[in-house]
Amino acid sequence: MIQTNNAHKVDNSTRNYIYTGYLTAIFGGILGIVIGWDLMKKKRITASGEKGFVYSLTDRQHGARILILAGICFILLLTLTIIALDA
């Protein structure tokens, strides 16, 4: 039986999901944190009963970057808001 290598196949919906994650992370949104976490941690159970990640390794790396970026931007935005309210 010939197995196809789907590792090089690019899923357009996943690409859009990653772009949305970066965009919402830059603006300090909680949605960026949720998308980053989802990309990193989401698993599924296959028909044979094995657990595996839903997204590829590169997508999970993007998820980690999105999560870190969203956290930094959220803290920065929160700090700037507190400073602006205090003034």
Quick synopsis:
This protein is mostly helical and about 90 residues long. Helix 2 runs antiparallel to helix 3.
Give structural notes.
The chain is mostly helical and 87 residues long. It has one domain. The protein has 3 helices and 2 strands. It has helices at residues 12-26, 30-41, 57-86; strands spanning 43-45, 51-53. The chain has a two-stranded antiparallel ribbon. The radius of gyration is 17 Å and the shape is elongated. The model is unreliable at 1-5 (pLDDT under 50).
Number of helices: 3
Give the strand tally.
2
Low-confidence stretches: 1-5
Report Rg.
17 Å
Name the overall outline: elongated
Tell me the series of helices and strands, N- to C-terminal.
Answer: HHEEH
- Structurally, the number of domains stands at 1
Distance between the termini: 70 Å
Element layout with pairings:
Layout: H1 12-26, H2 30-41, E1 43-45, E2 51-53, H3 57-86
Antiparallel strand pairs: 1-2
Keywords: Membrane, Transmembrane, Transmembrane helix
Transmembrane segments: 17-37, 66-85
